[in-house]
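does this look right to u?? iron/sulfur cluster version
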Amino acid sequence: MSSDAERGAGEGPEASDPDREAKAERIRELLATEGDAVAENTRGFNAGRYESTGRLDGYEALKDEARAIKEDAIERLPDLIDEVRETVEANGGTVYLADDAADANRYIREIAAERGAERAVKSKSMTSEEIEVNDALAADDVDVVETDLGEWVLQLADEEPSHIVAPAIHKSREAIAELFAERFDPDDPPETAEELTMFARERLGELIEDADLGMTGANFIAADSGTMLLVTSEGNARKTVTATDTHVAVAGVEKLVPTVEEFSPFVELIGRSGTGQDVTSYISTLTPPVDSPVPDFGSDQEPLADGSDADRDFHLVLIDNGRLAMRDDETLKETLYCIRCSACSNACGNFQSVGGHAFGGETYSGGIATGWEAGIEGLDVAAEFNDLCTGCSRCVPACPVGIDIPWINTAVRDRINRGEADPSQLDWAFEELVPDEEPGGLDLGTRLVGNYATLAEWGHKTAPVANRLANAGPVRALAERVAGIDRRRDLPEFARESLVEWFDARGGPAVPADEATREAVVYPDTATNYVDVERGKATVRALEALGVHVRVPDLPGSGRPPLSQGMVATAEAAAEDLYAGLAPHLDAGRDVVVIEPSDLATFRREYERFLPSESSERLADASYDAMEYVFGLLENGADPAGLRAPSEGTGPVASGKRIAYHPHCQARTVEVGEYATATFERLGYDVRVSDTECCGMAGSFGYKTDYYELSVDVGEPLREQFGDTDRTVVAPGTSCTEQLDALLDAAPRHPIEVIAPRG
Amino acid sequence: MSLADASTFTRRLDDLGVAVATGPPEECATMVEAAAGEPVVGVPLGRSGPEGLADSPATLPDRVETEPTTADLRAAHTGVTAASLGVAEYGSVALEADPAGTEPVSLFIDRHVVVLREADIVPDMPDAFDWLGPRARDESVDVVFATGPSATADMGGLVHGAHGPKEVHVVLLRDDDAADGPNDTPDAEAER
Ligand code: SF4
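got this back:
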């Protein structure tokens, strides 16, 4: 099959779907032009997050507190809106609740016209991007100047932000120097970061001094006092507010919290989560109109503080634009908890490779953008980039308010699937093959992957014919054209004897129940059962070596593949079937040992949504990652002598002692990634653990023609780390194994295959 | 404030590259003198920061222009203001906007010299917001928690002084009561 893969690679993909080809082309272009700068910055921020949150005592408790505050605030949102109107007005400001972007812009234009404003200076705010207020004001000849340095660079270059916190991370220093030289033609063009910054500071300083109107966003607003919190590092928001006598703040209604005291956990979390700063340089808490004198830079012999009360005007424009409706939508409601810290973007393997320009909707970018865009702009906009979420789930522990971002992506994908259903595309033969719960007309690639369990069973039954056929040139070409399955990617080879068949053929359990310390069911997930049977056999042998009575019953798929395609109803049906199959074992007090980490993650995370809570908790409590289970047995006194320790002695054997381990992304999210390391070390192995968030393959993702190159690029750091290692490479995930196989040219094994006694 | 807070505070400032001078209120003018560049504008103590500073022996040196025009502010290298609060865990100082101009004087300059009483240091952020909450509700205060100099990484490298000060100096006025107290011994500090 490799010869075919090579041939495919030589020819390049032959995607005939124009959308797919256009998307692939756009991704290729971004990889080439912006990929390096984005990668360096986001990976730096992400590493900073680990470092900074690691130093923080009680990080998890702080996250819980932050989440609880948001839950409460969104629950009480209508009351908080009323309350903030009262407090702001009591302070002498004005509150305007805008229904949508047009309404907000109309109001802001009126203020500008009343004040006779010729120039507005603006401090970076996603909400103002959302309503596109710059364009609205420009239509009235108001010159709007962005004062955040990154945002200003983009304004000069006429580009969109590529990151919600650091909008210009895709631009290199050289590109900025070129831009300044071109736009301003200075005598002595600035080149270093220092020179460029000072050049911008000076230019912007002048523009701010003469401005008539200051615009900001708000990170949070306390309803009890009308105080808003602005988090910045440059000081531009401070200058924008201080130097102008009219301040317009725009903020989504979801920014309200009940009290000023509740700002506190967010202040500690926001900088750490986003860029890894413990706190940003400036945390402004303004209860406008502010008390500072308005410096009159126009007649500068005036005393700065002339003793008179500052004549300041303040308008808070609260924007609904779909948010109040999102509040009533169980899935999208979570999005309103988002504090726009960018941790989810920085933690995302795909985002690290291509950045927000591939990942963006109209305004927001990164993983959570699906929720924002679906709520604010609608499903069509969300659909454009929703696919880029591979469900690796690394953003989940990164998010300071505990939003399950992959779930929002899955649920939105499901809505897109359903919304686009077109019965005329129904293909009867295909229907036979994919007996799912979804409406007809789904994209074929989606359905193929979503029905992987059925396909694999069929492939196994007809192997080796299926293997030969599946990898034959014409079939690959067809699969690529019709279903978007990239032919450069090797397809899994189906086993002739499944794990369940093997287990039955050997006569069932080798350790009798009455001699066993525990009883366990080894879950024959689809990949293990039909493709990678060896890791299943190794699991059985390892557990038996530790005195466990093992069973391998025939059980259905977990629903993970359809879930990855947003086929929620199919996944839910799978969860119910599998639970029914497992229930008798749970009743009998047996443990469930899971080899494929993405299946374990599904049990522990998504089944909550599909099964009655009693059932999902029962399964989650009884199920273990294979290496977690081994570790637990050893901790409880099982004799490690039954397992394979590194062999002492001569020659290349020593290399078998040294392991390069890539933990699976979802396993890390459910916190079982470290058990393999711990077990290896206990047995005397020397382990080096990969430090990437995700290998880039994530199930079906790397199979698709549009994403093949991106997938390979995401895996690049892994190749750099493990590419020429003489260590034995291990990875528990099926897709990681396939990705590593492609990247390193060496098929990694499941950790349990290394420590299990030889068969 | 405990002694531990003061030492955490100075340690954090040190990490941030902020110079700290500590001394009794009587030496305030001398410490500010040493920290300030030229020309220097400022807001009189007590009109900036806590009211208690107005009656304390702490003063600013004569060369600080405390009634600056906007031209003076523009030309100034250094701005001197007081801070109302320090947050030990983060090395942050709370600057309160007031009609006398603490906000512009601490912002439109290259070097900010901050005068803070040790007594006004609180341990952590929740304490700072407990202090802020009632004042925001009752007095509509505007407070910026400033931590180190203004900074940006937008131009391809970390640079200080993006819009605000490039440097920050803190003049920490030793708490007289604590100085006489039983905790202020080298041993107590060593135990920390
Ligand atoms: S979803 Fe969470 S991690 Fe992502 S930007 Fe919002 S708060 Fe931050």
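Residues 39 and 188 of chain B are 41 Å apart (CA to CA). idk if thats expected tbh
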